[in-house]
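User: Please fill in residues for this 137-position structure.
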């Protein structure tokens, strides 16, 4: 099964970049309930950026979905630890581990005679100017 991976780069602050991210992820949630955020190229994130991640996770869970985080740099790991947001997200060292965790959950669900369909959502997003995060799905 394929799950969308949203590759982020640059900085995430509360402003246009977080608004863009919210719109993009909510659109992705219409197509797949499970999303992986690759945060390996995030250079900075303020508290409002963390709030954006929490809001997106809440949106995903509201529709029965989940967002998993992968490739966190030391700055982001520390921020999540200090704010205790490590309890809100499943965090993985690699994209492959995050996707595998979704696959394991889907396999466990299917063994219970349930059938799940996970569409693969791929949309190229052009690079943004300034300090906005670049999203590459």
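Assistant: Residues filled in for all 137 positions:
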């Amino acid at each position: 099964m394929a799950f969308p991976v949203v590759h982020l780069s640059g900085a995430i602050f509360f402003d246009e970049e977080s608004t863009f991210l919210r719109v993009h992820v909510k659109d992705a949630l219409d197509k797949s309930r499970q999303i992986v955020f690759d945060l390996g190229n995030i250079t900075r994130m303020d508290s409002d950026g963390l709030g954006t991640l929490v809001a997106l996770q809440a949106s995903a869970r509201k529709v029965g979905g989940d967002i998993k985080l992968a490739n966190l740099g030391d700055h982001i790991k520390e921020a999540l630890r200090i704010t205790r947001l490590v309890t809100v997200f499943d965090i993985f060292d690699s994209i492959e581990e995050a996707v595998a965790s979704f696959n394991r959950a889907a396999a466990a669900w299917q063994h219970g005679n349930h059938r799940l369909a996970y569409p693969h959502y791929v949309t190229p997003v052009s690079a943004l100017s300034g300090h906005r995060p670049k999203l590459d799905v």
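For context: Residues 64 and 108 are 16 Å apart (CA to CA).
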